[in-house]
Amino acid sequence: MKAKYFDRKRARIEIIPMIDIMFFLLVFFIIVTLQLIPTTGMNTKLPQSTTAKQLKHPKVVISLQRDGTMYVQGRVISPNQLTAMLQQYPNPTQVIVTIAGAKQATLQELVNVMDACRRAGVSQIGIAARRT
């Protein structure tokens, strides 16, 4: 009679921990990818331009809706709050701001956003447009 601890056991590959790791990696990459997209979830119809150019990646993207509501990083923000937020940067003159305004937003609302940026000392302001 042989002892049980001398019996050869067949090797098994446990896949449950591997599945857990794959789901963790999937969630990690989804979260990282969402952080790389400047504005997420804001459905804005940009104006069209035949001379639109690709600019440097902005530090701040302001989404201006048709009713004049401003969004920064998914939060509603007022012009005064925008000025205060931009002033918190170490050197506001080096901050690049892009305004992604809806096609139906009025010129006055666009000027209000630009004034709030300029009060903070920001001079590099771009307007997002879709190339036709």
Mean pLDDT: 81
CATH architecture group name of the largest domain: 2-Layer Sandwich
Number of domains: 2
Beta-strand content bin: 15-25%
| N-end to C-end Cα span | 85 Å
- Text of the CATH class of the largest domain: Alpha Beta
Cross-sheet strand order for the largest sheet:
4-3-2-5-6
Task: Determine the structural class based on helices, strands and strand pairing.
Answer: alpha/beta
The CATH topology annotation of the largest domain reads as: Nucleotidyltransferase, domain 5
In DSSP terms (H or I, runs of 4 or more residues), the helix count works out at 3
The parts where pLDDT drops under 50 for at least 5 residues are: none
Shape: elongated
What's the helix-strand series?
Answer: HEEEEHEHEE
The amount of helix comes to 25-40%
* Cα-based radius of gyration, to the nearest Å: 25 Å
Task: Provide a descriptive summary of the structure in words.
The protein has 3 helices and 7 strands. With 132 residues, the chain is an alpha/beta fold. Helix 2 packs parallel to helix 3 (107-119). The radius of gyration is 25 Å and the shape is elongated. The model has no long low-confidence stretch (mean pLDDT 81). The protein folds into 2 domains: 11-36; 48-131, Nucleotidyltransferase, domain 5 (2-Layer Sandwich), CATH 3.30.420.270. Helix content is 33%, strand content 19%.
